[in-house]
Amino acid sequence: MATASAPPAPLPPLEGSARLWGTIALSAATFMNVLDTSIANVSLPAISGDLGVSSTQGTWVITSFAVANAIAVPLTGWLTQRFGQVRLFMASVLLFIISSWLCGLAPNMTTLIAFRALQGFVAGPMIPLSQTLLLSSYPKAKAGLAMAMWSMTTLVAPVMGPLLGGWITDNISWPWIFYINIPVGLLAAGITWGIYRKRESTTRKVPIDAIGLALLVLWVGSLQLMLDKGKELDWFHSPEIVAMAVVAVVGFAFFLVWELTDKHPVVDLSLFKRRNFWSGALATAVAYGLFFGNVVILPLWLQQYMGYTATQAGMIMAPVGLLAIVFSPIVGLTVAKIDPRRYATFSFLVFALVLWMRSNFNTQADFWTIMIPTVIQGVAMAFFFIPLVTITLSGLAPDRIAAASGLSNFARITAGAMGTSIATTVWESRAALHHAQLVESVNQGNAAASSAMAGLAGSGFSTEQVLGQLNRIVDQQSFMLAANDVFYASAVLFLLLIPFVWLAKPTRAAGASDAAAGAH
Predict the structure, then answer these.
(1) 3-class DSSP state for residue 499?
(2) How far, in whole angstroms, is CA 478 from its chain's centroid?
(3) 269, 400 in Cβ contact below 8 A?
(4) In this structure, how many other beta carbons lie within 10 angstroms of the beta carbon of residue 411?
(5) Which of the chain's ends, N or C, has fewer CB atoms near its CB within 10 Å?
């Protein structure tokens, strides 16, 4: 291993077919990674049913991956210095393939959650490094274009996930949502090694902040466990939940103190002194949490209460990528000229519009009514990542960009996991409330209820069957109303986030290419 004394000269950009194949291989690895954050969404009912657990416990398949991934992301900087960019990227891809294979073989939910956590952890360095390697392959002037191409991969994958996941679940079996990573990963690893093995970064031995890392795992893990188990254990009426909440708060306090005083912190918290960093990172994290929570609820509602198959639910989710693919390159090429705060504001307004449209759904909504807001959401996604990354990383010295990227990504991924837990919890508790209210109005004095009961009885249903049928209808309505509540509240929160974007100072035009050059 080489040790660095003077900083090495930057590597020249790749040319011709090497750059093309390098871009394809790095994008394929990123695609596979991001795909795995959403591919399980529409397969949750099938996985839960097959492994004999409730769909609430099934959401652990998503959150275990996200939490482990969030913990691994801030370690990327330290691991890169220790082992080199190319070696670390290759190790990340190969371990991801192995853990995907293990997920497919999982015999029960406990094992599946453990392997999903492993998969999330080894995937941590893959996205930051794929971007770092991609940007080293392009000349500085084309950083915006490279960024736009990379972000297209990260936008298409969450869309393809539900579609592919739904089709595989309906036509083959759910373990194949994990097995498909194996050929993609091997191909990406082979091409990457062929092109990038001579472009290894210099390495040096740097101490690891073991206590900081342990505290990070402790508080993030406790917080997520608390959010995931809260529904089952009746929240703060349970001593277990209270204990987890205490561990999360105390762990977080110790973590803050330790990281601010350690010489080599695992997370560089001094970045929060910068107004653009904290306003950009906060807006990104909360918006991503809202977006991800709603992305999980929609297919669950469609499959459990609207009679959609996994494939049909995937088809409703898929068009979100269409307009995102059209607009992303435009955003990437113009973000240096137009104030990114305007782009981010536009994105949040479109997200609010989409969620407001969804909050007006009813149980008679047809396929196209449900799909139209999904198509419009693609516009919001195109104007979301690149401008916010530009704001968050603007004005930072190049040597701090990797740490800033790692920290903002950590906040975003953690918020995504929390968004999933909070959205499903609110959805179920609001459904219970609506159910109780609707049941009150089902009595002999209610003309609509009486005629429905008479009609069912006339069709030869027994009293138990009539009541069972009515209960199903009430269930469907209460979960529909609860979904409307979640969508409406999310729309309002998106509007409230807009002022945070404007707390940031205007970014210099140069800042955009620097930010693009370090955005993870």
Answers:
(1) helix
(2) 27
(3) no
(4) 23
(5) N
Radius of gyration of the chain (CA): 24
Q: What is the largest CA-CA distance in the chain?
A: 88
CA 495 – CA 499 distance, rounded (Å): 8
User: Does residue 93 have a pLDDT over 80?
Assistant: yes
What is 13-200's CATH number?
Answer: 1.20.1250.20
Q: Which CATH number fits domain 269-428+486-520: 3.10.20.310, 1.20.1250.20, 1.10.10.60, 1.10.760.10?
A: 1.20.1250.20
**Contact in structure between 288 and 414 (CB atoms under 8 Å):** no
Q: Where are the alpha helices (DSSP H) in 124-238?
A: 126-137, 143-171, 176-179, 181-196, 210-233
127: Cβ–Cβ under 8 A, 6 or more apart, which residues? 30, 33, 34, 73, 154, 409, 520
Residue spans of beta strands (DSSP E) within 248-372: none
> Helix, strand or coil for residue 503?
helix
What does pTM read for this prediction?
Answer: 0.80
**Strand, helix or coil for residue 443:** coil
211 burial (CB, 10 Å; 0-12 / 13-18 / 19+) is middle
With b for 16 or more beta-carbon neighbours within 10 A and e for fewer, the 421-439 pattern comes to: bbbbbbbeebbeebbeebe
Q: Any residues with CB less than 8 A from the CB of 416 and at least 6 apart, and which?
A: 37, 66, 288, 289, 292
Structure tokens at 86: 């190319």
Using DSSP's 3-state secondary structure scheme, residue 3 falls into coil
The candidate with the shortest Cα–Cα distance to 118, out of 163, 64, 154, 78, is: 64
pLDDT digits (tens, 9 = 90+) for 397-441: 766 776 777 788 888 888 887 888 888 889 988 998 998 888 887
Backbone angles phi, psi at 291, to 5 degrees: -60, -50
Q: Which residue has the tokens 């190049």?
A: 398
Q: Hey, what are 10's tokens? A: 């930057």
Cα(150)–Cα(147) distance, integer angstroms: 5
Report the C-alpha gap between 351 and 345 in whole angstroms: 10
Contact 442, 391 (CB under 8 A): no
Distance CA 160, CA 315 (A): 9
In tens, the pLDDT along 158-196 reads: 667 777 887 888 888 888 988 988 998 999 999 888 888
Q: For residue 12, what are its two tokens?
A: 């020249």
